[in-house]
Hints:
Elements: E1 4-15, E2 18-29, E3 33-38, H1 44-51, E4 59-64, E5 67-68, H2 73-79, E6 80-83, H3 95-105, H4 110-123, H5 139-150, E7 157-161, H6 169-184, E8 188-193, E9 204-209, E10 212-217, H7 219-225, H8 231-246
Parallel strand pairs: 3-8, 3-9, 6-7, 7-8
Antiparallel strand pairs: 1-2, 1-4, 4-5, 9-10
Keywords: ATP-binding, Nucleotide-binding
InterPro entries: AAA+_ATPase (IPR003593), ABC_transporter-like_ATP-bd (IPR003439), P-loop_NTPase (IPR027417)
Protein name: ABC transporter ATP-binding protein
Amino acid sequence: MADLMISSQNLTRKFGDFTAVDHISFDVKKGEVFGFLGANGAGKTTAMRMLTGLLKPTEGEATVAGFDVYDEAEEIKRRIGYMSQKFSLYEDLTVKENIRLYGGIYGLSDKLIREKTEQLLDMLEMQDLKNKKIGSLPLGWKQKLAFSVALIHDPGIVFLDEPTGGVDPITRRQFWEQIYKVAEEGTTVFVTTHYMDEAEYCDRVTIMVDGRIDALGSPEELKLEYDANNIEDVFVKLARGAERSDQ
């Protein structure tokens, strides 16, 4: 389908005898905020690495932005944005230098880099900070900038890997307002998190347990299905069920 930005069928990744991602299947639509939830070690980051072309699957099928994860990984990398928990910024470079660097990495022309730099500095209200080194900035400013440079080349989809780790609740909420804005403009947002309350901000979520997708749906659908007050309760019920099945 033309409006599908991600399509995954039985995607699997093994490391020797250990199955990190176990036959996961899901689709993500254009402009959707799609949450990938689970405890640390559930397989979220491994799944994301396969979808971003950084790691080949062991088996299964997947396409991202219409390109195959096995044979067209470089095409995928050019068409996505990516932001990690560490924000991927260079601490010893200034704000302006980081923007220009990432514009070059994503293949923008010098003219477009100059235009984008001014646009981002104005939008983020960072003109007065443009010559400050990243290492001197508060965490919230780093987070906003990292998200913006991940979008500097106008990708159709942006992957956010635990993007709110270590930031305070107010900054987290402000960051989600940024996410909503880009999604409203048509960018698909794929976000991994272990903060269960952040699921409430997503259009749909998956909950991963031990490498498997144990639940998939909108927050309201999942709370209704599992007779839960919130997504954290859903996760606890799924985790307890997994523990019982392993015994």
